[in-house]
Amino acid sequence: MGGLVARALLTLKNFKQDLINLLITQATPHVAPVLPLDRFITDFYMTVNNYWILNARHINLTTLSVAGGFRDYQVRSGLTFLPKLSHHTSALSVVSSAVPKTWVSTDHLSIVWCKQLQLTTIRAFFDLIDADTKQITQNPKKKLSVLNHHFIRHPAKHFEENPAIISDLTGTSMWVPVKVSKWTYVAYNESDKIYFTFPLANHRKIYTHVYCQSTMLDTNSWIFGCINSTSMCRQGIDLSWKAELLPTIKSLTLRLQDYPSLSHLVVYVPSIHGSKFVVDCEFFKKEMRTIQLPVTHLFSFGLSSRKVLLNTSGLFYNIELLNFGQIYQAFTINVVSKCSGVKEEITSIYKLHIPWSYEDSLTIAQVPSSTEISLKLHIAQPDNESQVALLKMYTSSDCEYEVTVKTSFSQILGQVVRFHGGALPAYVTSSILLAYGGQLYSLFSTGHCLEYATMLDKQAKPYKVDPFVLMIKFLLGYKWFKELWDVLLLPELDAIILTSQSMCFPLVSLILFLFGTCTAYWGGLLSSTSVRLLSSLWLALKRPPELPKDIKMISLDLPFLTIVLIIVSWTTCGAFAILLTYLYYVFKIVHLQASLATFKNSQTVNLKHSRRNEKKSNHHKDSTVHYLHLSANDAEDSLRMHNTVINLLTWIVLLSMPSLIYWLKNLRYYFKLSPDPCKPLAFILIPTMAILGNTHTVSIKSSKLLKTTSQFPLPLAVGVIAFGSAHLYRVPCFVFIPLLLHALCNFM
């Protein structure tokens, strides 16, 4: 978050922007908070990002954002990418797996101590020093060049602000002409410098590109171009700056058409002692080394696959991954290499290149072998982007390669969790609200409250929620409906926000609803089991309580307790008061569960005793059992309702936990949390839950408000998904409404 705070400095009126001219952030979620748990953090993000967008022309600050990649489970890399603006080109965003000399993904903690990334950052800092001032340079062009050199594309040479394009090729050196289209040279203990020259005139007629690679990873210039030369030249154009550094080689690919003035290509082999390296060059046609591989369909579930076979003796291949550009797509690529007559260990490099964002990843394989590569995205392909994702294969000419791609269903679910996992609490709450509404309606229609699990299975259906959200999203495309929406001061639909961020998955809402319902079910099972265990502990430690003879909605201590909790909320932290209210409510339910268990045990004993006196007091016994039986049923109905309320209240407590944790960590500095996002909610929730803690189903069966109350949870469940999936702090606002109406049923 320090990276976001640094960007926020610029929004301060009295802050002098010229105090800083370089900002490097690591794993900072610049786009949006990971979990929007209160409105203050979302307002803060909106203020910072809007300022940077509106004032991009005037911000003279070079910014680099480094993401951790797929190993960072806390902050997904898509959130770290700074917004791309046409008039703000001094911002770079890159994933650590694409950073030269790093080439690894990091988790959220290791990104700050990953040695490879540390060294890359330190090298960049040294190159950013101005030779005259001994400080970070003020030149924005140089800053961007240094960051590009170290974090985007490294040419295997030390950074130079103004590199010499023309190099002298003089001295006592051998000049060896090479006329073949494919050439390999193994250098070992070379005593003389050698220049290998490749005449381009004849190759231009047949080939479109030339590719060269060297396993000597020094920082000297190694490849040049000669202009109008016959066999040797005194000066050459240094093409080494066009090369790219990879883990085991440095490589260069040139399109011959782009260099019409070059007559020769020159590869330089220095004199070395005790070292061995290999230099390869080959001329090729682009269409012979570019292979199109359409990815499999999303719903093939890995049952089908597509493959290509590379059986030519090339050194470099581009595999175009067609129809791949959405974040919900995930595939497994399997590369099987088979080599003939190979005695030494050979290394192949497979590089996944994403042209619309710097999120490349590399895989190194010792061939022959079978290598598995995960294929998924951090950033979706923009609508105006025509380039496709590439699998660049740096291969051995002695091996054949078979590339197979198939859909990975497990990784698709992983992408759903990565991009939409934060919305799960909204879907869990929506499912519980639907079950809650079903219980209230069954109480109104039949006089009895059904089990939570039964109502969850019956009521929590996606078709009760999703069609309404989709309908609203469709209608907002019409101007008249959008104007009506704005007149009513309704917030923007979360589905529209996700669509603008290219985060809409097919059937993602259905998947999340299924996960949400499962979580709601197991959460309900856990809460009911916990209540039973606590009631058993209560009975073991204290004299068994009895079921209440008369039902009092407002006891003598209730107003006092409510006032105390409201004062606690006002003077300390709203989340703390909500937690205390939750504990009070759980205490009341545990007490009721213990009373019911005691009653059932005593009822069994009384039933055995009454058989002896059945003839003497038959009428009296029947009436007594009938009365107690009704009382037990009411208690069981109340417990079922209370268990559902506990589940709703649990999620309110969980969503307010960050405020409580923040308050506790800073308690030694101040006693009152300000601003407090949970305080308004606490003021409403405390009296509501105090009343509900003393509410039994028998007291609300005849309420005139019960039918209306039972109808509210359905539209509120829709509202939770429509407005709370991307703004979790809104979820409790939808939950307390049916709870408040439930409490009011005691009085109406």
Automatic annotation (TrEMBL):
Q: Where is the GPI inositol-deacylase PGAP1-like alpha/beta domain?
A: 1-127
Give the lineage: Eukaryota, Metazoa, Chordata, Craniata, Vertebrata
Keyword entries, A-Z:
Endoplasmic reticulum, Hydrolase, Membrane, Protein transport, Transmembrane, Transmembrane helix, Transport
User: Where is the protein situated, by its record's location annotation?
Assistant: Endoplasmic reticulum membrane
Q: How would you describe this protein's topology in the membrane?
A: Multi-pass membrane protein
Family per similarity comment: Belongs to the GPI inositol-deacylase family.
**Domain called GPI inositol-deacylase transmembrane: residue spans:** 423-747
Q: Which domain of life is it from?
A: Eukaryota
- Its name, as the record gives it, is Post-GPI attachment to proteins factor 1
List residues traversing the bilayer: 424-444, 493-515, 561-585, 645-664, 712-741
**In which organism is this protein found?**
Acinonyx jubatus
Pfam families reported in the protein's UniProt record = PGAP1, PGAP1_2nd, PGAP1_3rd, PGAP1_TMD
